[in-house]
Amino acid sequence: MVNVFNRRRHFSTVKEPARFGPLIQAPVNQFAMLTDYVDPGERAVACPNQDVVYGLGAIGLDVSPVVYQVVDLRTDSFVQLGKMYNNTTPGFYMLVGPSWKGEVPKGITRFRSPTNTGLVGPRIFMDDTAEDRKAIQQVLRGVLMYPLAEYDGRMKTKDWAALPKVAAPPQGAQALAVLAAARNDPKLKQAMTEGAKEADEQLVRPLFQFRNFAQPLPHSWGTISNESAFGTDYYTAYRGGKGQYPGQLTERDQVLLPGS
User: Fold this and answer.
1) Cys staple from 247: which of 30, 65, 137, 255, with CB 3.0 to 4.6 Å?
2) With bands split at pLDDT 50, 70 and 90, how would you rate the model's confidence at 229?
3) Is 186 found in the same domain as 68?
4) What is the pTM of this model?
């Protein structure tokens, strides 16, 4: 939740889609697309997929509904689009906030978000071959998100390879700044150390004990029911991000965990 809020706050200062060091950035209610696999040097996403081309953007549905062209959303999402779910056809899809009461333009399928703030991460599968790397570029140009006011009923395109480049601060700069402050302030260092130890002992370690979260199955196996749709279960989301495989949506497959 804090992560999503902070990303929206950063994107609210962005003027146009651009490359941002090894990453991408875009104004709120737009996203930017890469044109190849994720750069191994990026540190914003802990475990990105290795066979897709990513996009990223933040939505502010209290500002405006947004229109998507040909997108595929996954992982704790309120919309399921794409062939992996229900053979969604290419076209226009609109996301609106929880209290939006406007008229849906003809030719758009509407989805309502339970919150006004969120993140969007379109992903396009790509084989690691020169042929597919070339072929996918035309597909990427048709993957867009923009405010409803810009919708005119026609498919738009954008050459993501031509994005301007913006200098980015060293990755992890904020964390490094906090550590530097702690080195110069013994009281701050002690408070941070004690807080980290307490959180690890009382919150983190219990999360890695299967008996605290897994539903028991025969023969010392277990499973989890919320899969990657964590909702407001931030403890389970943290456990998944720190190291335990969180699973996939139940309509696609089921993850089994060995007992401990």
Assistant:
1) 255
2) low
3) no
4) 0.69
